[in-house]
């Protein structure tokens, strides 16, 4: 199945000084299928969705939690936020939300973190199923960029999703972050693809372009994804150091497999 590629707009508006419209136009010109953002509370969000849809693209994802999933004391807040974001996603035809676990807490084991995170997602899952929106628990590295983040291991995230047992609760497998934490990316993708609902890319080291200056072979990685039955998006979430349009063209060409 051919890879459906998306652009994480904030990495290009914040880091490269592009306007949102320029990102969308670049996506159309290059051949991307969609664009994603990080939040939906901005007054510009409906306009952004309208612009994307008018160009024949799809808004592919945005962050759907403001409170940590692994902290029972704020579970009601987390579920309320996810519920609100699920409704927004359904309204604007956004297939999935990015859900952030939260940091480890002193005295709380990783096993307890699994149970707490699963319970929070379980509470939001029925509404996600009703509205046809996927909650994607994001894997991040806790070594370089997100010190203390608890969902930093594929097996940990898989166990959370397994416990929730919902077709609308999956994992956002961030290739950059997992390259730092685990490596062995292609084998992990092949063995766990059923649990993955979204992908992010970036070059390692540096979280910059996915070109020959970094250690990851994204053509091989995307070919491994394309060989499965995965039908979601692979979104480029890197910070360009040079010409952002050239970087987006190169990234698209490297990942255009299937």
UniProtKB/TrEMBL annotation:
Signal peptide: none
Alphabetized Gene3D superfamilies for the sequence: Divalent-metal-dependent TIM barrel enzymes (3.20.20.150)
Domain Xylose isomerase-like TIM barrel residue range list: 24-248
Alphabetized UniProt keyword annotations: Isomerase
Keyword Isomerase: yes
SUPFAM superfamilies referenced in this protein's UniProt entry, alphabetically: Xylose isomerase-like
Keyword Isomerase appears in the UniProt entry: yes
Annotated GO MF terms: isomerase activity
PANTHER family listed in its UniProt record: ISOMERASE, XYLOSE ISOMERASE DOMAIN PROTEIN TIM BARREL
Protein name: Xylose isomerase-like TIM barrel domain-containing protein
């Amino acid at each position: 199945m051919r890879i459906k590629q998306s652009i994480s707009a904030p990495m290009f508006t914040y880091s490269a000084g592009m306007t949102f419209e320029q990102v969308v136009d670049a996506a159309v010109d290059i051949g991307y299928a969609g664009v994603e953002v990080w939040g939906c509370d901005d007054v510009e969000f409906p306009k952004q969705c309208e612009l994307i849809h008018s160009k024949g693209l799809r808004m592919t994802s945005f962050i759907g939690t403001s409170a940590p999933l692994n902290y029972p004391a704020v579970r009601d807040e987390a579920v309320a936020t996810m519920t609100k974001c699920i409704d927004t996603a359904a309204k604007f035809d956004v297939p999935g939300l990015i859900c952030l676990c939260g940091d480890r807490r002193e005295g709380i084991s990783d096993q307890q973190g699994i149970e707490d995170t699963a319970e929070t997602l379980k509470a939001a899952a029925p509404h996600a199923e009703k509205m046809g929106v996927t909650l994607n628990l994001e894997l991040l590295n806790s070594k370089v960029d997100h010190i203390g983040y608890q969902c930093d291991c594929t097996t940990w995230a898989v166990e959370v999703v397994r416990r929730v047992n919902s077709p609308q609760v999956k994992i956002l497998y961030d290739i950059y972050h997992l390259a730092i934490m685990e490596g062995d990316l292609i084998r992990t993708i092949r063995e766990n693809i059923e649990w993955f609902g979204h992908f992010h890319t970036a070059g390692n080291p540096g979280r910059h372009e996915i070109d020959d200056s970094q250690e990851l072979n994204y053509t091989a990685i995307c070919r491994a994804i394309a060989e499965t039955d995965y039908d979601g998006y692979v979104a480029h979430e890197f910070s360009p150091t040079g010409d952002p349009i050239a970087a987006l063209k190169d990234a698209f060409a490297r990942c255009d497999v299937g």
